[in-house]
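Suppose you are handed a protein chain with no further information: no name, no annotation, nothing but its sequence. What can you learn? This example shows the usual starting point.
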Amino acid sequence: MYLQGVDDFPKAVKLLIRRGFKIAVSEPFTITPAKSGFIADLYTNSSFVWIMYSDGVKLLKEYSEEIMINNVRARALTIEAETAVSAAHAIYKEHMILLIDYLTIWRWMDKKV
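A reasonable first move is to predict its three-dimensional structure. Written in structure tokens, the prediction is:
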């Protein structure tokens, strides 16, 4: 199955449930399936208290690439987009920047970010 973007969100959730994941969190823009201590946050749009702070559709259309996850083709954000989203997530959702956030962003930072 090829997962392309936001329209395939329900397919991704069903695939994970078939592989033994249980839904830990369900919000308007986010579903968090979990299994054996592993979580997979699936977002249609990045949000905090149901307020979007990034446009997931635009990110997937303009700043994504094809990847393979356990023999399933999927779309994922480019490293540059992931860096920007990670920084926004730390600030808007977590309200803090941890050392690991800083080191990740610093390592991934380039002119495209």
